[in-house]
Design brief:
Elements (H helix, E strand, L loop, with lengths): L2 E6 L7 H12 L3 E7 L8 E4 L2 E6 L11 H24 L4 E5 L4 H11 L2 E6 L3 H4 L8 H18 L4 E4 L12 H8 L5 E3 L18 E5 L6 H11 L8 E5 L5 H9 L5 E4 L7 H6 L3 E4 L16 H7 L4 E4 L3 H8 L3 E4 L4 H14 L9 H17 L2
Parallel strand pairs: 1-2, 1-5, 2-4, 5-6, 6-7, 7-8, 9-10, 9-12, 10-11, 12-13, 13-14
Antiparallel strand pairs: 3-4
Helix pairs in contact: 1-13, 2-3, 7-12
Length: about 375
């Protein structure tokens, strides 16, 4: 049985994409272990899920974001310790395939490939360099840091036997995804797209009585909510929508301050578990998934799972236009693309969804994506 070691720089508690991929490979006959980073040191050190094992490493508290240079240094030091521990473990118990999730674990995979001939899979969920610009997108220093990270990433991709990524153009006329981003910079690497779609559900919760605009996920950017709050604040009092904001992140306090100073009925839910998502989405009429574009990422092809998660329970999403996410929302009839700066368009679409009681249906779920992943694994010469 082929041993696959996955590496991820979060505690995997949960990480739906990582867990779904591990489950798909386990069901295909691979022996999968996830090596995860318990940054806060408060998770179980080992656990089992769907036939695979999760092993968590502790190196002392490590922040999850880098809003300042000092915090960024703490993150880098923590990551270095985590990678060192994982490398020691996998040098002793060598896998046949190392599957590195996101750029901050890729150096471990390259060392294993160089020293032991381990097959290397890189799973690019996101553009690592874009995160460096999140807190201050106009900062010249952060732009320089982002450029260095990008250049290093491209150099490391050349070592990979396979790159799995979460998005790719869906037609000859659609906007590009991460697959096209990679191929523009490195033509010779094999790339397969595995979108982070949810597992099919057999029920659709009824719409709430009060029209409710929702968001469920990490709260990293205050700017994401500014225009939404402006639009809802200006809504006539007699039928003003409710907001439901679920999640936590580095911009928690900033977003909470915005909400508390508004005239809006807000339900605020903090950190939640994956199994709570159906109930949370069931309280929404529409998912709000419109992201700031200054740092790139969305315009380069990111596909946040919120749009798919909402659609699996029948809820439409409002998403960014002029990008792959908007193309898919339109093509699959699961969302409404808008320009983030056009407040009138946002209000008009919200009114349309409210008046028509719009619901949607997600035709494509995780089943096809897992098949594509398994086929790609077989093709790198390590089929079980």
């Amino acid at each position: 049985m082929t041993h696959v070691a996955m590496i991820v720089s979060n505690p995997c508690d949960p990480d739906p994409r990582v867990e779904k991929e591990a489950s798909a490979l386990t069901n295909a006959g691979y022996n999968v272990t996830i090596h995860a980073f318990d940054r806060e040191g408060n998770r179980d050190e080992e656990s089992k899920l769907d036939g695979f094992q999760i092993k968590r490493y502790r190196v002392g508290f490590t922040p999850s974001g880098a809003p300042s240079i000092i915090t960024g240094i703490r993150v880098l030091l923590g990551l270095r310790k985590f990678r060192k521990k994982v490398l020691q473990e996998l040098s002793t118990n060598q896998p046949k395939i190392v599957h590195c999730h996101d750029a901050d674990t890729l150096s471990v995979g390259i060392k294993l490939k160089t020293e032991f001939g381990t097959k290397l899979v890189f799973d690019m969920h996101d553009l690592a360099h874009s995160w460096a610009r999140m807190a201050r997108p106009y900062s010249i220093i952060r732009k320089l840091i982002a450029a260095i990270i990008e250049r290093r990433l491209v150099g490391r991709i050349r070592h990979c036997d396979l790159v799995v990524t979460s998005s790719g153009a869906v037609s000859s006329t659609s906007h590009p995804g991460f697959r096209e981003w990679i191929r523009k910079r490195e033509r010779d690497v094999k790339v397969v797209v595995v979108e982070n779609r949810p597992l099919k559900e057999n029920f659709e919760p009824p719409l709430p009585e009060q029209f409710t605009i929702g968001y469920a996920g990490k709260i990293r950017e205050k700017q994401m909510f500014v225009n939404l709050i402006k639009v809802v604040n200006n809504w006539p009092e007699e039928n003003k929508p409710k907001l439901l904001i679920a999640g936590f992140g580095t911009a928690d306090s900033q977003v909470d301050k915005l909400l508390s100073s508004s005239k809006i009925d807000v339900e605020r839910i903090g950190e939640f578990r994956r199994e709570e998502l159906p109930e949370i989405i069931g309280k929404m009429s529409v998912m709000y998934a419109v992201y700031p574009t200054l740092r790139g990422n969305i315009l380069d092809g990111a596909l946040p799972t919120k749009m798919f998660d909402a659609a699996i329970y029948g809820r439409p999403s409002i998403v960014n236009s002029n990008c792959l996410m908007g193309d898919i929302a339109t093509a699959e009839k699961i969302g409404f693309p808008i320009n983030p700066s056009e407040l009138d368009s946002l209000q008009s679409i919200l009114l349309q969804i409210k008046n028509e009681k719009t619901t949607v249906n997600l035709e494509r779920d995780w089943a096809g994506e897992s098949t594509r992943l398994n086929l790609a694994y077989t093709n790198i010469g390590n089929g079980s």
